[in-house]
Each structure stands twice: as structure tokens, then as C-alpha cells.
Amino acid sequence: MRTYQELFKAPEFAPLLAVSAAHVAALTVSGLALGTLVHDATGSPLLAALSMFGPKLAQMIGASVLLSAADRLPPRAATVGLALFFAVATTALALPNLPVWGIFLILSVQGTVGSVGGGVRYGLLTEILPAEGYLLGRSVHNMCAGSLQICGYAVGGVLVNVLTPRDALLIGAALYVVSAAVARVGLTRRPPRAKGRPSARESWGTNVRLWASKPRRRVYLALWVPNGLVVGCESLFVSYAPRHAGLLFACTAVGMLAGDILTGRFLPVRLRDRFGAPPLLLLLAAPYLIFFLHPALPVALAAVTVGAVGFSANLLLQERLLSLTPSDLTGHALGLHSSGMLTMQGVAAAIAGGIAQLTSPATAMTVMAAASAAVTLTLAPGLRRPAPVAVPVRSGEGFTKGRPRPADKA
User: Fold this and answer.
1) Which run of H or E residues covers position 281?
2) What value does the mean pLDDT take over residues 159-180?
3) Which of 258, 298, 275 minimizes the C-alpha distance to 376?
4) What's the rounded mean pLDDT across residues 189-202?
5) Which of 7, 99, 274, 304 is deepest in the core (most CB within 10 A)?
6) Which helix (H) or strand (E) holds 151?
7) Rounded to an integer, what distance in angstroms lies between the CA atom of residue 236 and that of residue 255?
8) Does residue 394 surpass a pLDDT of 50?
9) Is 176 within 8 Å of 90 (Cβ atoms)?
10) For residues 157 and 4, is the Cβ–Cβ distance under 8 A?
């Protein structure tokens, strides 16, 4: 499955894409509105960053106790329920006179419960598409998310200025309801991928099993840390350029869209196998080093656009993760990836906000980018795909020329 035409012929791919699109649109509009609301109320770069990315800190809590539900609940019912939960939580965030501590309490619960969402949606994607179609399918999901982030941050910036941040939050809540409705109508009823009831014990035990494999562990670290540190840079857009934050976020989304198109559709398999993800991870971080010079807005926009192309490294790393994971754990494995990545993004946002509080947003962005590049260089040797190993094949006269077999399976 190498063409978009083949992809969209797969039953239920389009409805699942629409569900994810509505979810991303809601998250984008409400996130920018919430960051603006908290920044206006407190004037704190740290709190503004945490309001947008802090809920992700709770993702690992949810992954520790709830993630077994990703494979043990009916996918359609779980998707609808999660979308409605997010709609209610976002509506609560729009309540007038809600104290800052109340905002962060709601965000913590939202982040904990939301940890299951990535595993449910992307586990379902592995059921809808054959294994060889996953990378292209996931790249289309990312491209759709990038396009909607471009529109969402632009529209969100207008809504925040023309209406109010609270009005923008209510629009975000309505978009979550749309996501729930599309899931209910467009997806068919399926049984859970794994047997048994969801439980904290099952969640933790499967996490340990997935983490125990050294190849998988390296892939998880590469998925979580370099990406998260660069998102720490992004969390400072509001405090770095309050009037142009929406534009910076939109340009980031443009770069992500370009990267997903190039990597998902046009990058040859031989280049993917030869170079893997490290070059893209370095591209992700390097352009942010220029913020140390406090560049003019056009230069800053160009830097974040080019850097965001490197986010497409996640496609290659997810493909690698699936090749190392049993089929009955795909939802859990992808959910652990999503939760760990979002948790690291929340940690990075907190660290970046703290550094910015003590120095400046530009200095903090430079520090986070340098740290991301350093982590990538450290992980790079362990991310190379092993060369195929020749296995002798018996013939009537003894051993003949070998055939290759994969050398690295968990």
C-alpha cells in the first residue's frame, strides 16, 4: 500500500481520519485559548507553558494505571466516550471566575484519562490497514493534524482576539462533540483486541514487558526525549512573541505537514533503512539554536518551519516499534509511545518555562534545542537497523547460498 488512492479505499480509514481531525482541531483551538487565558491572568511564562502542555505530565500516570484499556475496550465505544469526556472537561475550563488552581486540576484529570486515547485510535488504525500500509496511513493522519493545526492556530488566534479565550474554549468543546458523533456514525462495532478486563495491574505489567526489550527501549527513548525537548521550545512561543504566537505555531504545523508528506510518501525504503530517524531528529532541534541571537520574526518563522520537518522521524520510529511488538499489544505499545511522548513534552514545557522565568524565553529555547541534539547523538548508534543475517539453506548437495533474515526481533 504505497498510494493515497489505495489508502482511502480501505474501509473506515476516512471516518477514523475525520475523528482524529476533529479531535486535533478541538485540542488546537482550546490549547491556544487556554494558554492566552492563563498568561493574561498571571503574566507568567511558566504557567502559560504549563497550561498548554502541562496536562501531558499526567499522561504517564494514566499510562501506568489505565493503558490496558486501549486493547481491552471496544474501540468505537472508547473513542466516543473519550471525546465526550474531553468536551465536558473543556466546557468546565471555560467557566467564569475559575481559579488558576482549578484550571490545572481539570487539566490533570483530562491528561490522565486522555492517555488511553492515542492507543485506542492508532491501535484501531492497525486493524483498518494492513501492516505495510501503517506508515502511509499514519503519515496521512499527521498531515491532516498538521493542516488543522495551521488552520486551528490561525483561527484560534483570531477567536481569542475577536471573541474571548473562554468563547474559544467553548468552540473547542463543540469540536470534541463533533468527533464523538463521527465516531459513533462512521466506525463499526468491533470487539476488543485483547481478552480480559482493563486493570492497573495489567497496565503496569504490560508496560514492564514492553520496556524490558532493549531495542524497544531505545526506540521509546528516541520517540520521547528529542521530540519532547523541542516541544519545550514551542511552549515558549506565547511568552517569546505574544502577538505572533499563533503565526509561529502555524509555521511549525506547515513544517510538520511537509515532513510527513516527504517521509510518508516519497522517502525510499533503502534510505529509511540506511539512515533511519537520527538525521531527522537533528534537523528537528538545530534550527532552534538561532533563537540565541533573538532573530527577526521572518527568520524565526523560517527556523521553526524547517525544524518541524524533523518531527517526521516519529513515523520511522513508530514503524520500527510495530516491527518489534506482538500484534495483540499494538494498541498498548502505541498508547505507551503517545503517553510517554506527551509526558516528556509536559516535563520539557515545565523545564523550559522555569529556565525562561530565570533568564529569557530565547535563552531557554536555545538550551532545550541543544539538549535535544545531544540526546539524539547519544541514541543514534543504537537506532541503526541491523544488517540482514544470511541463513544457510540446505540443498541436495549440502548448503547453498544463504537467504537473509531479520537480525533484530524482540
Assistant:
1) helix 278-285
2) 84
3) 275
4) 78
5) 304
6) helix 134-162
7) 18
8) no
9) yes
10) no
Q: Which amino acid is at 83?
A: A
**Residue range 121-151, pLDDT digits in tens:** 888 888 888 877 777 888 788 777 767 766 7
- C-alpha cell of 112? 490522565
Half-sphere exposure in the Cβ direction for 204 (13 Å, CA):
6
User: In whole angstroms, what separates CA 13 from the centre of its chain?
Assistant: 19
Report, as an integer, the average pLDDT of 231-246. 85
Residue with cell 500516570: 61
Angle, vertex CA 17, rays to CA 13 and CA 21, nearest 5 = 175
Specify whether the backbone of 128 is left (phi greater than 0), alpha (psi in -120 to 50) or beta: alpha
Task: With CA atoms as reference, report the closest residue to 347 among 58, 40, 13, 11.
Answer: 58
Please give the full DSSP string across 82-100, using - where no structure is assigned. Answer: HHHHHHHHHHHHT-TT--H
- For residues 364-384, give the mean pLDDT: 89
Beta strands of 286-409 (E only): which ranges? 389-395, 398-405
The three cell numbers locating residue 220: 521509546
pTM: 0.68
C-alpha cell belonging to residue 372: 535535544
Residues 143 and 254: their CA atoms lie apart, in Å, by 9
Nearest CA among 41, 45, 59 for reference residue 110: 59
